[in-house]
Specification:
Largest sheet: 3 strands, antiparallel
Structural class: mainly beta
Number of helices: 1
Distance between the termini: 27 Å
Strand content: 15-25%
Shape: elongated
Number of strands: 3
Helix content: under 10%
Strand order of the largest sheet: 1-2-3
Length: about 70
């Protein structure tokens, strides 16, 4: 999902902005904005985007798995 073409614009992962904490972004064009904001000058920077955390198996799911689940 990090490199799709149809990314929803957000100042938090725009090339023109830098995080300054407290959910605020220092934008080269607009000044101080909120992280959820965006403008027409949005330029996507995939290195600023934080991927979703991987899902974790709960105890019940781990107990139901066996060695055959991991063989080809």
């Amino acid at each position: 999902m990090l490199f799709y073409r149809n990314i929803t614009p957000s100042c938090s992962y725009c090339r023109l902005g830098s995080s300054i904490g407290n959910g605020e972004i220092a934008c080269l064009r607009r000044g101080i904005t909120s992280a959820g904001g965006s403008c027409r000058r949005f330029v996507y920077d995939p290195l600023k985007r934080e991927p979703e955390s991987p899902s974790v198996l709960n105890k019940k799911q781990r107990e139901e798995m066996c060695e055959e689940d991991f063989t080809i």
